[in-house]
């Protein structure tokens, strides 16, 4: 499984989440989950919103834990919104163009999961991508194709709906090809203003996803914890698995749920795929 995180709040250095917590994303890339020895060694990436019109990307096909450039970059950038990802390939090549985040205009996308039978379905899925968007596909992974299908199905104007239509289309194609459980996914996307996430699986078990609690409430719970003092009340972190073991800090996102993290009240809505 891949691992990813998304942050929205006051500007911070990404290293504060990538390296500093006890179970930071870099530590998770070495061995994720209790008793799980598999490593996320098939590439990594960091995407952030800064002073340019489009988000910046740093991606590499090397293991995240040994990349000195990632450590340098994440210590120098300060961003109010970023996505980071460590990759475990599900069969497609280990190459930079297959590393997350993927970018299109103002949008970024990260994914943990897989399309069952992707090698059989890939051609039919590719043919459904809007021809105007098709030249933007640089790699071969199912994750990037999911992003471009979501863009094709209206992600820009209706982010949650675009993801639902993407998931519904893949499920329909997969089931027509004989797959009982075509899709497993947690996804994170952003337009530079909001952070969206969804947890869904065609089968019973869905990959984990967590969101941080209100910083205001956490300060009341842990008034002496200096780590919480410089985060704004609006700050939220979405993660594949918790970064630190602090009771009350993380809430598990239920399967079949989408999140919209934004200035003001966040939203949590049902995630219901349907074929477009």
From TrEMBL:
The keyword Membrane does not apply. It comes from the Bacteria. Keywords: Glutamine amidotransferase. Signal peptide: none annotated. CDD domains: YafJ (cd01908). InterPro entries: EgtC-like, Gamma-glu_amide_hydrolase, GATase_2_dom, Ntn_hydrolases_N. It holds the Pfam family GATase_4. Residues 2-264 form the Glutamine amidotransferase type-2 domain. PANTHER family: GLUTAMINE AMIDOTRANSFERASE DUG3-RELATED (PTHR43187:SF1). This is Class II glutamine amidotransferase.
């Amino acid at each position: 499984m891949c691992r990813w995180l998304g942050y929205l709040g006051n500007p911070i250095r990404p290293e504060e989440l990538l390296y500093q917590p006890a179970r930071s994303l870099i530590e998770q890339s070495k061995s994720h989950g209790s008793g799980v020895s598999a490593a996320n060694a098939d590439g990594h990436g960091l995407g952030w919103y800064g002073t340019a019109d489009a988000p910046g990307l740093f991606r590499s096909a090397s293991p995240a834990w040994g990349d000195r450039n990632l450590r340098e970059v994440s210590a120098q950038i300060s961003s109010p919104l970023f996505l980071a990802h460590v990759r475990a390939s599900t069969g497609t090549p280990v190459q930079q163009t297959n590393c997350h985040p993927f970018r299109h205009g103002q949008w970024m996308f990260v994914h943990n999961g897989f399309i069952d039978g992707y090698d059989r379905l890939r051609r039919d899925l590719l043919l459904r991508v809007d021809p105007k968007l098709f030249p933007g596909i640089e790699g071969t992974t199912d994750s990037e194709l999911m992003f471009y299908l979501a863009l094709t199905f209206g992600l820009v104007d209706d982010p949650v709906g675009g993801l639902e239509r993407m998931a519904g289309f893949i499920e329909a194609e997969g089931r027509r090809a004989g797959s009982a459980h075509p899709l497993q996914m947690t996804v994170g996307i952003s337009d530079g203003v909001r952070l969206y996430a969804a947890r869904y699986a065609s089968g019973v078990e869905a990959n984990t996803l967590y969101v941080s609690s209100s910083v205001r409430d956490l300060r009341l719970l842990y008034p002496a914890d200096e780590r919480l003092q410089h985060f704004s009340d609006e700050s939220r972190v979405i993660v594949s698995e918790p970064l630190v073991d602090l009771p009350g800090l993380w809430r598990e996102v239920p399967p079949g749920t989408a999140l919209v993290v934004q200035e003001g009240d966040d939203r949590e809505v049902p995630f219901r795929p349907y074929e477009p």
